[in-house]
Design brief:
With 306 residues, the protein is of the alpha/beta class. Helix content is 41%, strand content 14%. The longest helix has 19 residues. Bound molecules: phosphoric acid mono(formamide)ester and norvaline.
Length: 306
């Protein structure tokens, strides 16, 4: 059966750390595994907009010798009502993996059940696991390690927060999440992350106070207040989220050498100030770059080359 990557939880802790090691090696030597996926093809389907994910997958696959085929849903019969299952069955006859960015996690799961090749979650409303790989790679290269470090996410308890909770817990980190009341991460994810943390020496703390969550943090992370698909809630959300903005004041509560992360795209002046995102503690551009290396590592692993 094909191995899929629909959730961070599809990797065990050891596999996660092995992938990060490979991502580091790929970053240090861009010619590593050049051509290793020669003759392979990967379909990349985007039902939502993307800059980083699309370009980093296309470039990374090309560097490894594979042919990326990027498709907007409207380019496919999917946009005219063909089911995701039938799309998966057919694409499996042509390509070696399918990468999908979509709304519901169920859609990814349905695709994975029907496909006979690996399926990768390139973001759903529930998780953004490829992002979490690059996030941990960035934290580790900046802080020199993961276990025992405090990783704080402030803002919406969304897809990025979910994947970060699971990934941080697997890496033995102290993961704190602070959201406005009513915007907490899904309890099932928090529960699973806590369960994982209890086996790795990490911990998970979810609450509503951004200041106590930021206190002494080694990495401070945020994301947009309204994700793709929630645009109509943006005005309403902008009333309750300002206390969760990463500004100099919140950053001042973190550890003196703390780094700042954001998956991007950023809404400057909302969840993060210009001063912080452009400041000396910001690791966001390295974080965006690491999408390339982390996803190359993932694809090598899923396609059985490493
Ligand atoms: N962080 C991220 O996934 O960016 P894109 O939406 O541009 O792919
Ligand atoms: N939470 C954001 C992440 C974008 C990369 C969204 O889903 O729109």
């Amino acid at each position: 059966m094909a191995r899929h990557f629909l959730s961070v939880d599809d990797l065990d802790a050891e596999e996660l750390l092995d992938l990060l090691d490979l991502a580091d090696r790929l970053k240090a030597d861009r010619s590593l595994y050049r051509g290793a996926l020669d003759g392979r093809s990967v379909a990349l389907i985007f039902e939502k907009a993307s800059t980083r994910t699309r370009v980093s997958f296309e470039v990374g696959l090309a560097q490894l010798g594979a042919q990326p085929i990027a498709l907007a849903a409207g380019d496919l019969q999917l946009g005219r009502g063909e089911t995701i299952e039938d799309t998966g069955r057919v694409l499996s006859r042509y390509v070696d993996a399918v990468v999908l960015r979509t709304f519901e996690q169920d859609r990814l799961e349905a695709l994975a059940r029907a496909a006979s090749v690996p399926v990768v979650n390139a973001l759903s409303d529930f998780e953004h696991p490829c992002q979490a790989l690059a996030d941990l790679q960035t934290v580790r290269e900046r802080l020199g390690g993961l276990a025992g470090r405090v990783l704080t996410f402030v803002g919406d308890g969304n897809n990025v927060a979910h994947s970060l909770l699971l990934a941080g817990a697997k890496a033995g980190m102290i993961v704190r999440v602070a959201t406005p009341p009513g915007f907490e991460p899904i309890p099932l994810v928090v529960q699973r992350a806590s369960e994982i943390a209890s086996t790795t020496g990490g911990s998970v703390e979810v609450g509503n106070d951004p200041k106590s969550a930021a206190l002494g943090a080694h990495a401070l992370y945020t994301d947009v207040w309204a994700s793709m698909g929630q645009e109509e809630e943006a005005d309403e959300r902008s009333l309750v989220f300002p206390a969760y903005r990463i500004d100099e004041e919140l950053l001042g509560l973190a550890a003196p050498d703390a780094i700042v992360l954001h998956c991007l795209p950023a809404h400057r002046g909302q969840e993060i100030t210009d001063e912080v995102i452009d400041g000396p503690r910001s690791a966001v551009w390295d974080q965006a770059e690491n999408r390339l290396h982390a996803q190359k590592a993932l694809m090598l692993s899923l396609l059985g080359v490493d």
